[in-house]
Amino acid sequence: MKKLKYIFLIIIVCITASCKTKLGLADGKTKNADSLSKDNFNPVKPDDIIDNISQIDGLTDFSFNIFRKLSLKESGENISFSPVSLNIAMGMVYGGARNNTATQISFVMGFRPGNEEFCKEFGEYYNYLNSFKSDTSLIFNLANRVFLDRNYLIKEDYRLLIKTFFDGAFENADFRNNYKAEETHINKWVSGMTKERINNLIPEGTLNDKTKMVLVNAIYIKSEWKYPFRETATKNKDFYSMANQPVKTDFMIQRKKDFRYAYFEEKQILELPYKSTELSLIIILPDNSDAANISSFIPDNEDYVSMCNQLKYNDVYVEIPGFKTESSFKLADVMKEMGVKDAFDGSSDFSGITGNNDLAISEIIQKVFFEINEKGSEAAAATAVVMYQTSAAYNPQLDQYVSFIANRPFIYIIKENRFNTPLFVGQYVKP
Predict the structure, then answer these.
(1) Which of 303, 317, 307 is nearest to 259 (CA)?
(2) Per mean pLDDT, which range of 77-91, 134-148, 206-220, 417-431 is the poorest?
(3) Distance CA 40, CA 380 (A)
(4) Residue 315 belongs to domain spanning
(5) Same-domain pairing of 202 and 157
(6) Do 217 and 88 contact (CB within 8 A), yes or no?
(7) Residue of 335, 274, 312, 305 whose CA lies nearest to 421
């Protein structure tokens, strides 16, 4: 527990196509950044999508909406989820989506309608995350890599989109003749990017000779708490997953005047800062919660914004359990329930990738590792989208401390601090 702690995000997008695909570009011409115009990136927009919707609000609202569904499906379990991982993965897919496929992804995920508008805004957000590299209190890396079958040609528009807005590098692969070796190669790259926290990300049998492209995004963050918990203060105490059913677990304990805190609609909100001012951890502790009802306390974007705005510096006595959890999700059915339907069947339109209209998503998979202890937190996430071919101010006047004793189920959020977008969201309901 004395070693430094890490936060990792890994995103994998697998794209496959069968041998009936015609190899070649739509027009065979290379274009520059000036060609990224509305003519190239402009899906149909439904009447009920507001053109001036805030991109950040959309990303945040979707993040909590999908986590609420996962929480209901995993009632009574400790889970962690990475919305930013899914957002980046689906953002790259959305860049090649057209017509109703793009409309549904945009509406459900809160992406700006119109590929060009979305890519420009998301690209700015991506560059903001990338700027963490200059923060000396972090070791940070952000990289996108596209493993492209050497015999498969994609539209230059899409290649340029990935490079321009996602800073993506391309690497030739030989899926047609040697997909097993490419699977090993990609998994080793992912393992290296996560300090071997995520191994064998792509399960055996995922790739085959019809695979044409695998898009990988990796985010690596290393930091510690601004105010570490003393290990000698840790105590074994009761945690109540259900009323009158205590379970012993180790609680990290400290008291600080420099924690931001709020009481909001029968919930305590605590923000734990990292050494880096770019990140913090939010804990939402309901007054009355148990393992069965924790999903009802997951905020929507409006409540989340209110919570963040009401946080004030306070003198807070804190007890929170140290814990580690691992989660895995299959998200295709959840996304269908939320309204992304055409992307998963023969109605899909990803012609912005190849110029052909013959790709669909078969599954979206995410795996997450999350741990916090006295020194900091460690987290890892991997998201795979597999595609196939189809026909506040400081207040020093307070004279009484607040007790924040997280001895019952709670929600936690690792967020970036400029826009407050959630990078990880989880629920802790039992030791």
Answers:
(1) 317
(2) 206-220
(3) 35
(4) 231-321+394-428
(5) yes
(6) yes
(7) 305
